[in-house]
Design a protein that fits this description.
With 352 residues, the protein is an alpha/beta fold. Helices cover 33% and strands 23% of the residues. The protein has helices spanning 13-25, 55-61, 76-85, 100-113, 127-138, 162-165, 174-177, 179-190, 257-262, 306-318, 326-345, and strands at residues 4-8, 29-35, 50-52, 66-69, 89-93, 117-120, 144-150, 195-201, 212-218, 224-230, 240-244, 247-251, 282-287, 293-298, 349-350. The strands form 2 sheets. Strands 14-13-12-11-7-10-9-8-15 form a 9-stranded mixed β-sheet. Strand 13 and strand 14 form a beta hairpin. Helix 3 (76-85) packs parallel to helix 4 and helix 4 (100-113) runs antiparallel to helix 11 (326-345). The radius of gyration is 21 Å and the shape is globular.
Length: 352
């Protein structure tokens, strides 16, 4: 296979869990460079990757074609810009940037340099999200009228990470962190909304960045879509609730790839590597053609984050479609910007 050389901008949780294992196991990639500012933790598992002490040093000296910008969101604009100016293709972690203006500037630069820019929206490859897409495409719910998508946690104590907790830093908080996932899934499933209303604040108090949000998206076909997240949710809710004129579907958040990777699981190329479900994770309740009620417990099929890197590889080698291109994810940043504006002023914000 044609080998694609990749450089990783950081070796924290994101690098160790979401990127390095897949780059190692995919036969088309080789991680030749990694940035570690003071440690050498990558040497044990990735001895072939040369360690650099700064992103700038790696960009100047490393022999790489693709750079993965997996640093805090506040640095995304600077590092993506530098990587593009150095002639490198870029994969950038979500959230894409701090705001839509930064995202648009980077997309324009990538186009000018004839380089690709992809946002790592890995939750598009979660088993639960993929199952929701299948149910929607099956048309079993009929005309969908109302949807709620949630991503809750129980984390009542601050993480200590300033780039996520400091309310004075743009891009900190749950809206950029978890909202980047929910907004991406909403726009992928239902398109770009007409307007929105949002409530964004910190349950832990004003000394911390937002840890709660509720966004109501309005669509031209009168559909309503609610996105919600809280860090004070001890008992899990259904992550996806869809209601149509022929029935409803409830789906739990059951994708366990992140937890398995943190525990040391090794993703296998070309295989479903996650643990199978023991119990059903969805409920489909619909009217049949005879107007009878049919209630079915459903099982979602495994997701696989390897498919993101497979699509990146196929784009490089065969020219296939780029996964989550920056120009597409700009719309997510516009929704985040609008949600902050709506919450601050207590008003509905038009997105047209």
């Amino acid at each position: 296979m044609q080998l694609v050389k990749v450089g990783l901008c950081a070796f924290g949780m994101s690098g160790k869990v979401f990127h390095a294992p897949f780059l190692k196991e995919h036969p088309g990639f080789v991680m030749t460079a990694v940035v570690e500012r003071s440690k050498n933790e990558s040497q044990e598992k990735y001895p072939d990757a040369e360690i650099y002490r700064s992103v700038e040093e790696m960009l100047q000296n490393a022999d790489v074609e693709v750079v993965v910008v997996n640093t805090p969101v506040q640095t995304h604009f600077e590092y993506v810009r530098k990587a593009l100016e150095a002639g490198k293709h870029v994969i950038v972690e979500k959230p894409f940037t701090v705001n839509a203006k930064e995202a648009e500037t980077l997309v324009d630069l990538a186009e000018e340099k004839n380089l690709f820019l992809s946002v790592y929206q890995n939750r598009r490859f979660d088993r639960d999200y993929l199952q929701v897409g299948k149910i929607i495409n099956s048309k079993k719910l009929g005309d969908i009228k109302e949807v709620e998508i949630r991503f809750d946690r129980f984390r009542t104590e601050p993480s200590g990470k300033q780039h996520k907790e400091n309310p004075e830093q743009a891009g900190s908080g749950s809206l950029h962190d978890l909202g980047a996932h929910l907004i991406d899934q909403a726009t992928q499933l239902f398109g770009f909304p007409e307007k929105l209303y949002a409530d964004v604040f910190s349950m832990k108090g004003q000394d911390f960045a937002n840890d709660y949000f509720e966004i109501l998206l309005f669509y031209k076909d009168q559909k309503r879509l609610r996105l919600k997240s809280s860090v004070f949710s001890k008992e899990a809710h259904y992550a996806y609730m869809l209601y149509g004129d022929k029935g409803s579907f409830l789906q739990e958040r059951t994708d366990n790839q992140e937890n398995e990777l943190v525990a040391g699981a090794v993703p296998e190329y070309g295989k479903d590597w996650t643990l199978p479900l023991r119990d059903p994770d969805g409920i489909l309740n619909v009217l049949t053609e005879d107007s009878e009620t049919k209630r079915v417990l459903t099982f979602s099929e495994p997701g696989n984050y390897m498919n993101y890197y497979q699509q990146i590889y196929e784009h490089i080698v065969f020219g296939y479609s780029l996964p989550s291109p920056g120009i597409e994810v700009i719309q997510n940043m516009k929704i985040i910007d609008a949600a902050l504006e709506s919450s601050e002023h207590g008003k509905v914000v038009s997105l047209s």
